Amino acid sequence: MSDRFSKASRGKFVAGAVAVAAAAKYSSINVIAAPTKELVVGINVPLTGPYSDQGADQLRAYRLAIEEINAHGGVMGMMLKESLGDDETKAPTAVANAERMIDRDGAVMITGGSSTGTAVAVSAKCQQKNTIFMATLTHGDETTDSGCHKVTFRRYNNAHMSAQAMAKTLLTKYGTGTWFHITADYSWGWSVRDNIRAVVEPKGAKTAKVVLLPLGTTDFSSALSQAQAAKPDVLVITEFGKDMVNCLNQAAQFGLTKSCKILVPLADEYMAKGTGDNFAGVVTTAPYYYKHYYDKNPLSKKFIDAFRAKYGVPPSNGAECAYMDIYLWKGAVERAGSPSAAGVVSKLEGFKFTATKEPNEYWRTWDHQGINSCMVLEGVPISERGGDVFAYAKVLEIHPGDAISIPESTSKCKLDATV
Amino acid sequence: MEAVAIQLFDGTIRGLIYVAIALSLTIIFGMLRLVNFAHGAFFAVGAYVALLLAPKIGYYASIPAALIVLAILALLLDRIVLRLFYAKDPTSQILVTFGIALVIQESLRLIFGGTTQTTQMPASLMQSIPLGFISYPAIRLFVAVSIIVLVGVVWWILVGTNYGLIVRAGIRDRTMVALLGGNVTVASRVVLVVGAGIAGLVGALSSPIFGVDPNVGFSFLVPAFVVVVIGGLGSFWGAVIAGIFIGILQGLTTLVMPAASDVVIYLAMALILLVRPQGLMGESELIRQA
User: Fold this and answer.
1) Side-chain half-sphere exposure of A14, counting CA atoms within 13 A
2) pTM assigned to the model
3) Which residue in A10, A312, A388, B27 has its CB near the most CB atoms, within 10 A?
4) Cα A131 to chain centroid, rounded
5) Closest CA to A253 of A282, A224, A213
6) Which residue on chain B is closest to A269 by alpha carbon?
7) Which ranges in A91-215 belong to alpha helices (H)?
């Protein structure tokens, strides 16, 4: 190999390696401009990356809601149009998408987020742009706690609610032995880890180790081999989306699903499908489970039937939240008589409603957290899912939101004075 | 100390996967001067072949099937697109192979959806094997042994056959080989086909571990590029040593600072290139033996 070729080739390869890394940023963008008498809604979800299953399912639900609303005359006679962005589960991309949707496409509301990292960043941008943000699948406390904003509303349960809801089960089913955590290394993972530890450690549980891994980790063997050596009683997998699927499936290959109890603090239908039988016996939480609410709430039944008819699959819990967020925002716009942020905020704060779950949900005025129930679920094997791979769990407990939410006295939320 | 031993072992096993991908990348690059960004997509196609065929013909039989499917795919890509770009500048090559990768990935997404799926594997590989200091998944041991065999076979072809001689000579000087009557065009095509086949084979092999989704190959492509650069371009054993080094480095980093386990490989690449710009074994030992 000549020197000349070697140098050129090396440069070419190094450039190639850099370009491959940069290529991870490519995104798909689909924009529909807003003509007169239309209201543009910015849908900002991950369509690529580790949370893409959740993003894709939220998008289905948003589109179903928009289609239904437009079929019934729109919002105050104005048709809804989407401006779509793939946030790739990356905060800078999510913020750039939101900015484009607001500045270029005239979006009057931004919604989406399958990650607390992206949601908190978009929330700050929306506050700056004076635009409503209906945060959907974001579970870290920060979104309506230390990172809260006047324009942001989050109906999805948060990590504090999940940990409090599971408290009894954690102590009765998992005990107070040695706990090993594998945790996604960003605000959501930290939030869940801290909340779980705050519940179990005062009762005597010991934390052997917390291994923080970057979002998008494919191979968990380093962490799992450490967990195996630590011989914990409980392995807590605070990972989400494809990361959780890979982690739990690999944990099973390491024999950890047999040697210790597995806890996955938050899961959805797609994660349970991807892990199959490895999810059997795993305790988790979810704000919504289509199988439970189908025959308990008429709106739920209507929504699930429409979703199945259109897409052939049931909605995940993130999809339910996405669907309702569009309707809840629509109601606020109509009550305010305007899509202006100030009007919508005033009509959402303290608003009580019955949606797809139990009656009398409401938005708290001082942090904009939606108060509704949190379910504690236990995974069942494929053989017990009745031919529906998404029917992944049995319900252990359902806790009313008021009893498990962050109290105002300990909240770090300081809402902005104005919209 | 036991924790370090475990990470050394686990890192070596993971590194072998990097080795297999980097090896095929570096041979393709050496022979064709082609920076193949589509290699991650080839890996993904191999994983889907195993996902589809394992329930019908079994996991073991799906592995060579993936190699064959990828070899055919590479041959088609060569005839339709790639042959037009071998003599072009690097930017054109990067753009066209990246374009191929996107087309393949999005086609997989369109056909199979984006959900992560898992390849069925035999019950014998679903257990973990006690090794004294660790109980290790049988599937990972199987993948590791398969890759060691694969590396041995590729090495034997390169140094023990006349065809390998042409490839090694072609890596050094294509023009000279052509002047001496060697069929460089055919040899190049075979290298592309075999390289793509290896990527598909490794994708199929490892699909029960890492799951199957349209982007699964991408997470291995970046470390594989790093391995090629660290090992030295065109260096067979450089890729082997660098692959295992990167695997171990990631494992040990996870032990002390897990959050840095992704970043550390780029830091290692920068440091090694500062000291040895040609990589660890930049002057190919293949060439020295020629």
Assistant:
1) 17
2) 0.86
3) B27
4) 21
5) A224
6) B115
7) 91-103, 116-129, 159-169, 187-200
Q: How far apart are CA B188 and CA A340, in angstroms?
A: 63
B221: closest chain A residue by CA: A20
Report which DSSP code applies to A46: -
Instruction: Please check whether residue B250 touches A, CB under 8 A.
Output: yes
Residue whose tokens read 């790093």: B226
Q: What is the three-class DSSP state of A109?
A: strand
Instruction: Please report the sign of the dihedral spanned by the C-alpha atoms of residue B76, residue B78, residue B81, residue B83.
Output: negative
B115–A273 C-beta distance less than 8 A: yes
- Map out the domains of chain B as residue ranges: 2-289
Q: Is the CATH number 1.10.3470 carried by domain B2-289?
A: yes
Contact list in A for residue B209 (CB cut-off 8 A) is 219, 250, 253
Give residue A100's pLDDT: 97
Torsions phi, psi of B156, nearest 5?
-65, -40
Stronger pLDDT, A243 or B88, i.e. the higher one = A243
Gap between the Cα atoms of A278 and A296, Å rounded? 29
Give A208-238 pLDDT, tens digit per residue. 999 999 998 989 998 999 999 999 999 999 9
Taking one residue from A and the other from B, the number of pairs with CB-CB distance under 8 angstroms is 161
Q: Which of B105, B116, B134 to mutate to test the interface with A (most CBs of A within 10 A)?
A: B116
Question: What SS3 class is residue A106?
Answer: coil
Nearest to A135 by CA among A315, A317, A318, A285: A318
Taking CB atoms and an 8 Å limit, are A20 and B222 in contact across chains? yes
Pick from A185, A187, A92: nearest CA to A139: A187
| Distance (Å) from the alpha carbon of B212 to chain A's nearest alpha carbon | 10
CA distance A86 to chain B (A): 14
Q: Among residues 23-42 of chain B, which lie with CB inside 8 Å of chain A?
A: 29-30, 33, 35, 37, 40
CB contact (8 A) between residue A250 and residue B137 = yes
